[in-house]
Amino acid sequence: MRVLVTGAGGFIGRATTERLIQDGHAVTALDRQPGRLRWPDVADVGGARLRLIGDDLLNVDLDELLADVDAVVHLAGRGNVRASWHDPGPYLRDNVEATDRLCRHVAMAERPRVMVLASSSSVYGGRLLPWSEESAVAPASPYGGSKLAAERVAEVRLAGCGKTLVTARLFSVYGPGQREDLLLSRLIDCALTGDVFTVHGDGTQRRDFTFIDDVVTCLMHLLHVECSDVLNVCTGASRSVLELVDLVGELTGRSLRISADQTTSVEAIGAAHTWGDNRKLLRMCGPLNWTPLRDGVARQIESQQHR
Known about the structure:
Oligomer: single chain
Strand order of the largest sheet: 3-2-1-4-5-6-11
Radius of gyration: 19 Å
Order of helices and strands: EHEEHEHHEHEEHEEEHEEHEHHH
């Protein structure tokens, strides 16, 4: 199978591309930042089976790009909940307009059978937890709104064209290679450097942390789904920020310096809690061996110690 991976140079995109190559597939890896596509040794991650394209989804020739691919994993997009409040325009461009253009071309292309769309738990927002796929969608940030809009345009564009659209709502993905501005990455950096870590709110807000390798495993399963669907990709458990602070301190052997910021604004902390119901995912994919949070955090600490 040849798979187009958009956003292939990002945290999840890179791990997905490498897994596809390891599993014997061919990959067209697209990223608008060509520098992010520089693997240490291309031959080690696929050689001739890896095609690297440094271009923007809104500019690239998608007809040519889609002509020889069997499936699409659409991971390209703009993250960062807090930044979306200050400048929402790029989120409309990168998460909605780019998705719309890609889906229009997928719908018209002959070959791709399935598209896996990476969405986010940020589309939810109701107080009733855990969130199932049938829960109300009520984004609490411009970022969340842009991801929900991307879901909707994909559904409309691919309706009735014979393609399978699988929407994967990802929950708090962490692990080696995580963006430096995200919670766990910042926390580990503070533990290693001795810098002060700011806890927003009272630290009791909870997240359904999902290890990168487990997310990629789920995406591999979703490439073979026969019917369009929406699925939570999550462990079905949640841990508080304060629990994470204690775990990082224990694993690094460092006493973290903590600063409390008692603001409880949505802009500062996003949704108060995220916790997903993953029973639908398990029915589709079968039993999954989730990486224990302790093991996953230890692996991320090790990777940050050497970067």
